[in-house]
Amino acid sequence: MRIEPFKLERFFARHEFTAKHLLSASDCETLSLPELLDLATPESFALWNHLSLSYTESQGHPLLRAEVARLYQSVSPDDILIAAPEEAIFLLILALLEPGDHAVVLTPAYQSLYQVALGAGCAVTRLDLSLETQGWRLDPDLLQRSLTPRTRLVVVNFPHNPTGFMPSHQEFDTLVRIARQRGLYLLGDEMYRFLEHDPAHRLPAVCDVYEKGISLSGLSKSFGLPGLRLGWLATRDASLLSRCQEIKDYTTICLSAPSEILGIIALRARDAILERNRSIVADNLAVAQRFFAEHSDRFTWIQPRGGSVAFPVWTGNGSVDDFCQRMLDERGVLIVPGSLVDSPGNHFRIGLGRRSVPPALEKCVSLVGPLYFGGSEKKGPYQADAFFTRAIGAGGPARR
Ligand SMILES: Cc1ncc(COP(=O)(O)O)c(C=O)c1O
């Protein structure tokens, strides 16, 4: 198997830990170990205190799988396989697809969602989101037209990275109906689930609504705990899950023991953690909307419907790649250009989940021109500190 370099991950590997300001991170603000332990119930704190650093169960700790299963309506702990999220994509694609098979993948996409299939000798058709006056749109007819007799898998990702797009419930039902009619597997990358900007927009999990649906999720994004490297696959297809587990013996065999227990603690405290992170995203969204409204001569803002990223357009001079490079070189601000996710046009991704977003946006000001806030009535130079402090909020990590 030959697999192309992962452009976005190589970019982050090069810059993430040296750039002064991250404006494109897709995860939510993380917690320190003491902050997470502070959220532990006495029972889960005891698990942490008695943690053994042996190998763990290959399918995942039973208590962890029980907590994961509680996120769904119709799967049991036996229907869950624990793995790092990125690893879970790899396992699933290798378990499901043979060389010559065909997959249809919602694009732009997190690269592994299509690159692993290409590396495995499969054909992949892009299912491109289109940009309309109302925002991002997915045409379910396009899926219908992309199918071939060799199609075995459809891959979607809602809330979507990088656009923040979410289909309506009706459009989502149509996608599931098409997959069912054709007997296709449907992988739903739900890494950003629970970060819908309007809770009414939350979609059902793919594993709950479709017997050949596989939900991929984890603690990296909505929970802000990517360092745990903890994710999972949830599906009612037992033989598929068992095939994934067999392949996992060639990747990590099992999850790290400390991560499993910390994952149990986090999932048991999910309401507090998710509430905290939704509030950070909401505050950042308000800051971003105002920033892009004030600079509508250089940018086009496209309202995301969920998740912790947005994908506006650079309309100023030069290409978006030049803009991002200048931001990095001259202001130390790391911004992901759309080219890293194979997106045409001058889009770039901004993160909305970190507390560092407002000050990072502020750093962009001198490159894009003087910044004023206050709607049409421009009252004078924008007072960064006052506004950004309000936007960040008193917040602090969630406490019981
Ligand atoms: C849509 C999507 N799926 C999967 C992943 C993989 O998650 P992780 O980096 O925690 O392995 C990411 C990470 O950015 C992502 O954005």
Kindly summarize this structure in a few lines.
This protein folds into 2 domains: 7-30 and 271-392, Aspartate Aminotransferase, domain 1 (Alpha-Beta Complex); 36-269, Aspartate Aminotransferase, domain 2, CATH 3.40.640.10. Helix content is 39%, strand content 15%. With 400 residues, it is an alpha/beta fold.
Question: Would you write up a description of this structure?
Answer:
The chain is an alpha/beta fold and 400 residues long. It contains 15 helices and 16 strands. The chain has a 7-stranded mixed sheet with strand order 2-10-9-8-7-3-4, with helices on both faces. Strand 5 and strand 6 form a beta hairpin. The radius of gyration is 21 Å and the shape is globular. The C terminus is likely disordered. It binds pyridoxal-5'-phosphate. Pyridoxal-5'-phosphate (PLP) binds next to helix 5.
- CATH architecture type of the largest domain: 3-Layer(aba) Sandwich
- Structural category is alpha/beta
**What compounds are bound to the protein?**
pyridoxal-5'-phosphate
Query: How many strands?
Result: 16
Helix count equals: 15
Assigned CATH class of the largest domain: Alpha Beta
What oligomeric state is this? single chain
Low-confidence stretches: 370-400
Q: Average the pLDDT over all residues and give the rounded result.
A: 91
Task: Give the C-alpha Rg.
Answer: 21 Å
What is the CATH topology classification name of the largest domain? Aspartate Aminotransferase, domain 2
Kindly report the name of the CATH homologous superfamily of the largest domain. Answer: Type I PLP-dependent aspartate aminotransferase-like (Major domain)
- Using the alpha-carbon principal axes, give the shape: globular
Helix content: 25-40%
Portion in beta strands:
15-25%
Looking across the biggest beta sheet, what order are the strands in?
2-10-9-8-7-3-4
Major pleated sheet: 7 strands, mixed
Number of domains: 2
Distance between the termini: 48 Å
